[in-house]
Amino acid sequence: MGFLARRDVLLTIVLFLLALPAQHFEWFALLEDQANSFRHQMRIAYGDQQALSVSKDVVLVNVDEPFFRAYGSYPLRRTDIGAIISNIKELGAKVVAVDMLMDFPSSYNEDPALAEALTNAGNTVLVAQAQFDHGKFVKLNYPTTVLDQASASGYTNISSNSALLTVLSRLKIHPDIATERYGWPFAVQAVAMHLGQPPRLADNVLSFGELKVPLDHGDHLYIDFPPLPNGTRFLSQSAGISALEFLDISQLDESEREELSYWVRDKIVVLGDTSEVSHDWFDTPVGMVYGVEIIADTISTILKGAPLRAASPQAAAAVTLALMVVMIALAILFTRPILRALGAVVVLGGFAALTSLFYVKAGLVLPLSYALTAGILSYVLIEYRAYLLERNQKKHIAKTFGQYIPGELVEEMNRTGQEVSVGGESREMTVLFSDVRGFTTISEGLSPQELTTLMNAFLSPMTRVIQANRGTIDKYMGDAIMAFWGAPLRDENHATHAIRAALDMANTMEELSESFIARGWKPLKIGIGLNTGVMSVGNMGSDFRLAYTVMGDAVNLGSRLESLTKQYGIFIQISEFTLAAVPGLIAREIDLVKVKGKDQPVRTFEPLGFDGDVDAATLDTLARYHHALAQYRAARFTEAKAIFQSLAEAEPNRMLYQIYLDRIDHYLAEPPPADWDGSYTAKEK
Q: Of 432, 483, 435, nearest to 458 (Cα)?
């Protein structure tokens, strides 16, 4: 459970836990409304078209623009409303639902005539309005007293879920209003009269006898808005009929009456105003829709048993928590940013696609925006933590290694994100030791200020050479330098880079000697030893002081080789292990030597350059030398001596030839034992 210590994981848990009450109590309904609008458009495009169609038991009768042009005045007189209702009922309508608010008496005393028409028609529904104060029900505003006595009514006001944008997508069934007289929504009242069953509300289920209509946990009915045919803006343009057809049917013959009766027989007829002057339209998931059309769609949804059904709060919470678990797993398992990004796209995109698929194909409404928002925010938090870690790691790398290795390597480590270790770790590397010959004698004739200037003049160019060849400075030990290759940044060519650094250091010393002489200083000579092998590298030391360094037998051998350079009179000495790791290197074998503290002899070499860098005369001399060395190792001392003498005459200043001549004279006087392996045991470190 160590992952719980991560702040991004904890904040992810907090975000998703906040999403649970947010989606349950609909704190941010605007986002969810927009998500539902998108999903409903997908449902219209890819869902079951037959299931989406308007129920055949409901029909619209529109008081529209053509009606008023033919009618010649506005608004429609209540006596004519009564005539239309009477004619619709005469043609066989089962329920006439009049979506026209008539809560004030008629100025022309027309209410008695309309009331008589309503009474004679029977099974009519008029519009009432529910009055709320800060979301709390106050009372029902019924039609005028005369009309209220002649007809049933139902409230039509549907409130938006969002306080910022009015989007009507659900019908709220208020249990506290249902106890009032005609305390049901307009559409519910119309369906009840059509089925001849009183509505009942219990346990988030609206029932009409055997018809059960599931609601969400807040007693909301999701309205399953139907698709509109191409080229139409409103349902009334394709699914309705003009009220003008029903204004006067006295002159119709039998066949015309039968044709008109086909539209309304045994149906719920919703009579309403769809003229532009009424401005009775609202924003819905399918666009702007007239109020009377929303009523018709609601009636259709109820009659079809609510094809859109909200998931239970338990299921919604389970899905949200499942997404939380996946997001946490994403943060823990994926360390690379690109993989996390792809994972987030797959997870969050898959969540949105899956919930949309359930909505489109199964009519199951799962909350989308709350969990998706929590997921997006949690991904941002996860990435922000990763950014902080990366930034801190870069600072740590720069602080830890900036003084040891060249700046371009620090940048490369930050750029590539290569893993680096500051703890103990074993890996194959190459170590270099260099030391100034006779430094004590040189320093005796200098003041402290001059000595400091000299050391800076020597160490600075040597450091630049090492770092130019990708080396890491381990430490300065007075006039000595210790460096290594292969850490903290892994380097497959660490031995090659170390050899090139050593050769460049020797060349740089020749240039420095001239400048030192010009400044009145004695020229410096250095010895360099290199070895390649498995070493321990990391921050080592005590609780009080740590240093990034290397340790091990391979490191000690490099130090021994540097010390032995002065005995052989050479600048650079490397081990056979370094030579084997550097292809194309031309080197003179120096000795098969048992360094102090080692029982096994090590072949050592003096690097001369790479293929193409060494002239033919040097290569010829090198071949003769190696032949003499082979004779020496085979105990053919007389033959070896002849060749070494010839080489010494040609190069009298090369100490190495005289070393072997001295050894040969010793062995000629005192032959080595029969099991002699040709090695030499060093007496000094």
A: 435
Q: Residue 286: pLDDT band by 50, 70, 90 thresholds? A: confident
State phi, psi for 82 to the nearest 5 degrees.
-60, -40
Cβ-in-10-Å burial (0-12, 13-18, 19+) of 630 comes to middle
What secondary structure does DSSP assign to 482-530, as a single string? Answer: EEEESSSS--TTHHHHHHHHHHHHHHHHHHHHHHHHHTTPPPP-EEEEE
Mean pLDDT of the chain, nearest integer: 89
- Residue showing tokens 């919703």: 270
| Gap between the Cα atoms of 189 and 179, Å rounded | 13
Contact between residue 13 and residue 328 where contact means Cβ atoms under 8 Å apart: yes
Contact 371, 320 (CB under 8 A): yes
Find, among 527, 531, 556, the residue nearest to 655 by Cα: 527
Distance CA(596)–CA(555), nearest Å, equals 14
Closest CA to 405 of 425, 427, 422: 422
Assess whether the previous peptide bond of 75 is cis (omega < 30° from 0).
yes
Contact in structure between 100 and 111 (CB atoms under 8 Å): no
Distance CA(582)–CA(532), nearest Å, equals: 10
Q: How far is CA 285 from the centre of its chain?
A: 31
144 pLDDT exceeds 70?
yes
- Estimate to the nearest angstrom the gap between the alpha carbon of 137 and the chain centroid: 46
* Dihedral pair phi/psi, residue 427, rounded to 5°: -160, 160
Dmax over Cα atoms in the chain, in whole Å? 150
607: helix, strand or coil:
strand
CA pair distance 28, 35, nearest whole angstrom: 12
* 566 contacts 527 by C-beta, under 8 angstroms: yes
pLDDT tier, 239 (very low <50, low <70, confident <90, very high otherwise): low
Compute the distance between CA of residue 201 and CA of residue 161 in angstroms, rounded to an integer: 21
Q: Which of 408, 308, 298, 422 is nearest to 362 (CA)?
A: 308
Q: Which range (19-28, 235-244, 391-400, 503-512) has the least confidence? A: 391-400
Half-sphere exposure of 655 (CA within 13 A, CB side): 9
Q: What is the pLDDT of residues 598-627, one digit of tens each?
A: 778 999 999 999 999 999 999 999 999 999
342: left (phi over 0), alpha (psi -120 to 50) or beta: alpha
Concatenated DSSP letters of 61-102: EEE-HHHHHHH-SSS--HHHHHHHHHHHHHTT-SEEEEE---
- pTM beyond 0.85: no
Residue type, 574: I
Amino acid in the structure at residue 201? L
Specify burial of residue 684 (Cβ count, 10 A radius: 0-12, 13-18, 19+).
exposed
